[in-house]
Amino acid sequence: MRVAIVGASGGIGAALADELESCPSVARIFRLSRSPAATAGATSSHLRLDLEDETSIAEAAAAIQQEIKALDLIIVATGLLHSERAGIRPEKTFRALSADSMMATFQANTIGPALVAKHFLPLLAKDRKTAFAALSARVGSIGDNRLGGWHSYRASKAALNMLIKTFSIELARQRPLALCVGLHPGTVNTGLSQPFQRNVASDALFSPRTSACHMLSVLDGLSCEQSGSVFAWDGKMIAP
Known about the structure:
Blueprint: E1 2-6, H1 11-21, E2 28-33, E3 44-48, H2 54-67, E4 73-76, H3 99-120, E5 130-135, H4 151-174, E6 178-184, E7 187-188, E8 205-206, H5 208-221, E9 230-232, E10 237-238
Parallel strand pairs: 1-2, 1-4, 2-3, 4-5, 5-6, 6-9, 7-8
Antiparallel strand pairs: 9-10
Helix pairs in contact: 1-5, 2-3, 3-4
């Protein structure tokens, strides 16, 4: 297998890359991120990719295509819920909505992954099972929304889920064995969830490695007939 991990310098992205690094069936891993990611072994290399810069996305895809014929797995392991530096926080009420915060959230959670798909989906092999997956979230489910709040984050992930569904339809025409899905990693002990862990039970707070193992296991068990949906870390499909 030949794999590309976008967001490989983050907690979950690095854990995914590290787990795949230890897998005997993985021959090549491209760790893509804005800042240099740690590499561990002869099968890994780092390429610069900035989700806010489409040129960098296109250049990374071109560099991969120059080296290998095709990819078997692409995972977009990025996300934005809050940023103290940028003053972005999940809204508790619609009165807290800000155009700037919404645009930043959609750029990171929706537009960036969409542009990765634009340039990377054509790299998937045509003659075998392949997969494109992007980290989504249960709170992006419209049908599962019972609490409200977190308006920008919810909406950006719901939009991502729609893109995944739309990509899967188009992808099936060109690569019928390909899988295109969203993955909910659970609550993971990373900087994204840290301010919101107070009420999370200890057995429901995953380490990045545990979450990565769960999601890779889910991907391994999915078939192309399940393409276009969003799945939680335990393999259960999340309602649209």
